[in-house]
């Protein structure tokens, strides 16, 4: 079933039952991106979507800098000789690489950056010499490029991974690296809260982490499709990369040692999760703390009241703009109902309706996007009430995201129950012995299914969902993107 035709002749689908179509339509209708660029899996960031992402980026920039992680920029072109320093990594990426040709179509031994390590770590080996150079903590905001051959989806799986940050740190000891991991977890918790998202945090299976690494924490969001979206990772690399790239330092005793490393990364998939988790059949719902427009003022008038209402609306707009991100909709060829629809579609947290009655009574009609609640506010109480309401919306969206995830995790005790849970677009919580053989059997239960991670905490013993072996490992199974 289709509903509500918008610009470009697109019709917004129903979010829960037709999520894939809904997602593709809302990106275009709400002005997040334009995917009509003439190259597969590349798109144009439109202003509204880009401003949301910039608000998220500005926040992570501040968090990283406040804890002393410095921003740098490394070249887009990566020499093959750097890639070949870690052959395990190179084997995993070379078939996805964008190879660069030089002038006159001659082959050039470079690729476009698929991840940061091969560009950064050769420089680490030059810069890091002594224990006095440690810890070395940097990050970059870049695009990365991978020739994806799977089914691509804007912002979720692209050939250009845009608005992406990578933190890379080097430390003198294993303990220092583990402390850095804990710090990155705290930083990511703050970013998630800013986006009013509640992810599932898991340990990656050992064969899914970088070869030789100590471990990795990964974040996932459950989307309305029933698929989980991988959305950020914190990797304790141990000395796996420092040994490949010869990143050594001289310690206080004059001994040469390899550094211990951590790398952490995420980006625009945060916005994909915001869109999927918070949206509804009317469109987007943008959390106030990342919204480029927090309040939209809509004057409602006829020919007799037009001047008085518009003058008041402009005055209110200027006043509110001192504290909030506010826009006013003065389009004269669009009905108030159409304006309501447009701004609901774009997910603006609060709408102020201002008509002759509001002007006369010195009150405002305020409508919440998250609940649809409509209420009156006295002009004298405007700032205080709007500030509290925006805070309430932020809290409510986070609460709803948490409840949605927790209610969607279902215990499964056998393969049939796993399939039943997945068919309900939920996550199956299972005991797992940790073996690759049982992992493969779980993956075979349903097309796209995967045991994507294990619980960070040990639990009471149970029996593996496949082989019945005694185990204290809890795994999470879902369909994945």
UniProtKB/TrEMBL annotation:
Swiss-Prot/TrEMBL catalytic activity: tRNA(Pro) + L-proline + ATP = L-prolyl-tRNA(Pro) + AMP + diphosphate
Example GO BP: prolyl-tRNA aminoacylation
Ranges of residues in domain Aminoacyl-transfer RNA synthetases class-II family profile: 49-287
Record EC number: 6.1.1.15
UniProt xrefs under Gene3D superfamilies: Anticodon-binding domain (3.40.50.800), Bira Bifunctional Protein, Domain 2 (3.30.930.10), C-terminal domain of ProRS (3.30.110.30)
Subcellular location field: Cytoplasm
Family matches, as Pfam families: HGTP_anticodon, ProRS-C_1, tRNA-synt_2b
GO molecular function: ATP binding; proline-tRNA ligase activity
Keywords noted in UniProt: Aminoacyl-tRNA synthetase, ATP-binding, Cytoplasm, Ligase, Nucleotide-binding, Protein biosynthesis
GO cellular component: aminoacyl-tRNA synthetase multienzyme complex; cytoplasm
Domain writeup: Consists of three domains: the N-terminal catalytic domain, the anticodon-binding domain and the C-terminal extension.
Subunit details: Homodimer.
Cited function: Catalyzes the attachment of proline to tRNA(Pro) in a two-step reaction: proline is first activated by ATP to form Pro-AMP and then transferred to the acceptor end of tRNA(Pro).
Similarity section: Belongs to the class-II aminoacyl-tRNA synthetase family. ProS type 3 subfamily.
Name the UniProt record assigns to this protein: Proline--tRNA ligase
Classification lineage: Bacteria, Pseudomonadati, Thermodesulfobacteriota, Candidatus Desulfofervidia, Candidatus Desulfofervidales
């Amino acid at each position: 079933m289709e509903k509500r035709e918008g610009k470009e002749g697109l019709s917004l689908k129903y979010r829960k039952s037709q999520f894939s179509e809904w997602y593709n339509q809302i990106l275009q209708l709400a002005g997040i991106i334009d995917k009509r660029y003439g190259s597969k899996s590349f798109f144009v960031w439109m202003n509204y979507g880009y401003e949301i992402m910039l608000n998220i980026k500005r926040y992570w920039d501040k968090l990283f800098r406040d804890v002393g992680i410095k921003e740098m920029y490394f070249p887009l072109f990566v020499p093959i000789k750097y890639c070949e320093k870690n052959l395990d990594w190179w084997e995993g990426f070379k078939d996805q690489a964008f190879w660069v040709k030089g002038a006159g179509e001659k082959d050039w031994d470079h690729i476009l950056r698929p991840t940061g390590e091969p560009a950064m770590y050769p420089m680490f080996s030059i810069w890091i010499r002594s224990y006095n150079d440690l810890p070395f903590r940097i990050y970059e905001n870049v695009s990365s490029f991978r020739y994806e051959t799977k089914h691509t989806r804007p912002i979720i799986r692209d050939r250009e991974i845009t608005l992406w940050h990578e933190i890379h740190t080097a430390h003198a000891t294993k303990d220092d690296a583990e402390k850095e991991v804990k710090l990155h977890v705290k930083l990511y918790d703050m970013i998630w809260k800013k986006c009013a998202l509640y992810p599932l945090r898991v340990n990656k299976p050992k064969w899914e982490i970088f070869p030789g690494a100590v471990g990795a924490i990964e974040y996932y969001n459950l989307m309305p499709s029933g698929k989980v979206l991988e959305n950020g990772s914190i990797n304790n690399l141990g000395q796996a990369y420092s040994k490949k790239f010869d990143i050594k330092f001289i310690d206080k005793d004059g001994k040469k040692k390899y550094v211990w490393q951590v790398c952490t990364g995420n980006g625009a998939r945060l916005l994909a999760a915001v869109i999927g988790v918070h949206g509804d059949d009317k469109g987007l719902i943008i959390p106030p703390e990342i919204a480029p427009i927090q309040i939209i003022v809509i004057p409602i008038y006829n020919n007799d009241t037009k001047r008085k209402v518009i003058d008041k609306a402009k005055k209110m707009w200027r006043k509110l703009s001192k504290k909030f991100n506010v826009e006013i909709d003065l389009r004269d060829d669009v009905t108030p109902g159409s304006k309501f629809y447009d701004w609901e579609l774009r997910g603006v947290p609060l709408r102020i309706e201002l008509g002759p009655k509001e002007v006369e009574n010195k009150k405002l009609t305020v409508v919440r996007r998250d609940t649809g609640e409509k209420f009156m506010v006295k002009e004298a109480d405007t700032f205080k009430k709007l500030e509290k309401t925006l805070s309430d919306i932020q809290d409510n969206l986070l609460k709803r995201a948490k409840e949605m995830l927790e209610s969607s995790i279902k215990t499964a005790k056998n393969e049939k129950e796993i399939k039943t849970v997945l068919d309900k677009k939920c996550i199956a919580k299972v005991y797992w012995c940790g073996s690759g053989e049982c992992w493969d059997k779980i993956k075979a239960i349903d097309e796209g299914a995967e045991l994507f991670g294990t619980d960070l905490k040990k639990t009471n013993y149970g029996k593996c969902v496949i082989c019945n072996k005694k185990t204290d490992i809890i795994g999470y199974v879902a369909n994945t993107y």
